[in-house]
């Protein structure tokens, strides 16, 4: 079985957009400044193997970044962090639930059994002369039995 990376990234991006909280969601890390309003991007950060079901195969740990962007030029400035944090909270709640992307993933590695767990960190990003408040979610997904182990 092959890892459906594009399908997984597309499914996560669609889920983020379906939340109704973001004006735009990219399926890649933007090379140019995102638009105005609350926007997001989803991209692959890491791929590795994890122990599987005991069969002669390995499962994958696919780590995605889900980053939300909010321009610092919005008014009132005091509303930027609450709006951004509320959007991230909505996504984190979904990722802590039964989040399998319609069967594309077994689960989210919420507690980091196989590495860094589900996490989000705020910061700032300057891109194309504009400064954004950003919040990046580390979304570790476990995908079952992908790679055959040959003895």
Structure in words:
25% of the residues are buried. With 151 residues, this protein is of the alpha+beta class. The protein contains 2 helices and 6 strands; from the N terminus they run αβββαβββ. The chain has one domain (5-145): STM4215-like. The longest helix has 17 residues, at 80-96. It starts with a helix and ends with a strand. The radius of gyration is 17 Å and the shape is elongated.
| Largest sheet: number of strands, sense, barrel closure | 6 strands, mixed
What is the total tally of β strands?
6
CATH architecture designation: 2-Layer Sandwich
Low-confidence stretches: none
What's a concise summary of this model?
The chain has 151 residues and is an alpha+beta fold. The chain has one domain (5-145): STM4215-like, CATH 3.30.2000.10. It has two helices and six strands.
Name a few traits of the molecule:
alpha+beta; 6-stranded mixed beta sheet; 151 residues; elongated; STM4215-like
Question: Helices and strands in order, then pairings?
Answer:
Elements: H1 5-18, E1 24-26, E2 39-50, E3 57-71, H2 80-96, E4 107-108, E5 119-127, E6 130-148
Parallel strand pairs: 1-2
Antiparallel strand pairs: 2-3, 3-6, 4-6, 5-6
């Amino acid at each position: 079985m092959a890892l459906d990376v594009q399908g997984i990234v597309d499914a996560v991006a669609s889920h983020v957009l379906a939340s109704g909280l973001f004006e735009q969601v990219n399926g890649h890390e933007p090379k140019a400044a995102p638009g105005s309003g609350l926007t997001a991007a989803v991209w692959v950060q890491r791929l590795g193997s994890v122990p599987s079901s005991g069969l002669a195969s390995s499962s994958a740990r696919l780590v995605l970044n889900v980053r939300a962007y909010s321009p610092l030029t919005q008014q009132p400035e005091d509303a930027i962090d609450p709006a951004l944090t509320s959007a991230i909270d909505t996504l984190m709640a979904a990722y802590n639930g039964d989040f399998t992307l319609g069967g594309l993933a077994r689960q989210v590695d919420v507690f980091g059994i196989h590495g860094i767990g589900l996490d989000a960190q705020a910061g700032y990003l300057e891109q194309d002369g504009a400064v954004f408040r950003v919040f990046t979610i580390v979304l570790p997904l476990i995908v079952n039995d992908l790679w055959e182990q040959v003895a």
